[in-house]
Amino acid sequence: MEWRLLASLDPSEQRLVLGRTHRHRYAKGETLFHEGDLAETIHLIQEGRVVSRRTTPQGDVVTYAVLGPGEAFGEMAMLADDHRRSSTIVALEPVVTLTLRFDEFRQLCEEHSGVQALLVRMLAHRVDRLSTHLIDALYLPADRRVLRTLVDLCGQYADHARSGEVTLPLTQVEVAELSGASRPTTNRYLRRLEEDGLVRLNRGHVTVLDVEALRAVSAR
């Protein structure tokens, strides 16, 4: 397993951090935690993928990120005064996470200087991801954002590829939310991609039929 969060640590420090974690398993569709829940752990994804959702001020639930093996989530609650979860996390498939308690993480930071950089790395990764979404939303047309989202998701599910096909277990509505595009615009563009033979639209998921061709269209 290549842990992005732990990449800056030497092997002994990585073993030290992982040795303090606890393994948890979740079924497909299971909620790991809800927005607003009290929190005391950081999660490292060992297997499977999760989707992150937040509630807007208008009360709508929006999907904004898909995370997979090697990635981490839950660190924002450690910085909040009330230690409340900032999003809802749901398993898209069977998921295994390694959890590290906030108090154990702080102790590791105090005892090992290399570990102190972990939280900074997590926050920097989050800021970079959000900055990319913001720039895309400001400067890319909606169809290009949908296309980029599909390509990024194909990278996330590369290990599920069969003969150039990748099935994304997300609805068209979720693709729209991840793209920051309206549902009608996303649906129209997805249907156009289907007519071009690049995707197949199904109930509850989207299948990319030719990943390389999709990437080529994205690069134009």
List keywords for this structure.
4-stranded antiparallel beta sheet, 24% strand, 220 residues, alpha+beta, globular, 2 domains, 8 helices, Jelly Rolls, Arc Repressor Mutant, subunit A
What does this protein structure show overall?
The protein is α+β, with helices and mostly antiparallel strands. It has 2 domains: 11-136, Jelly Rolls (Sandwich); 141-219, Arc Repressor Mutant, subunit A. The protein is built from 8 helices and 11 strands. A 4-stranded antiparallel beta sheet has the order 1-8-3-6. Strands 2-7-4-5 form a 4-stranded antiparallel beta sheet. Strands 9-11-10 form a 3-stranded antiparallel beta sheet. A hairpin with a 2-residue loop joins strand 10 and strand 11. The protein starts with 10 loop residues before the first helix and ends with a helix. The model has no long low-confidence stretch (mean pLDDT 87).
Shape: globular
What is the count of DSSP helices, taking H or I runs of 4+ residues? 8
Structural class: alpha+beta
Helix content: 40-55%
- CATH architecture assignment name of the largest domain: Sandwich
Please tell me the total number of domains: 2
CATH superfamily of the largest domain: Jelly Rolls
Q: Report mean pLDDT, rounded to a whole number.
A: 87
Could you tell me the number of beta strands?
A: 11
Rounded to an integer in angstroms, the radius of gyration calculated over CA atoms is: 18 Å
Query: Mind telling me the CATH class of the largest domain?
Result: Mainly Beta
